Amino acid sequence: NTMTKSEVDHWINEVISISTLLFAILWGQFWIFLITAIVAMIFDGQFIIIQRYNRPRILRILEKSNQKKIY
Length: 71
What we know:
Blueprint: H1 2-19, H2 23-27, H3 30-70
């Protein structure tokens, strides 16, 4: 399912956002990396929420559509 794959991709982006904090070890400026990680996580988080909200509705629509094709 494309929607599930998209959600997984955004979860992976969440992990990548957190991993950028490791760059603070190399270059310092922890607060800058923390702020950008949080902003990136909020940005990807909105798409996770949208996917979770819309998936059951779209699946219901597809089920109804498939039932109509049978009859």
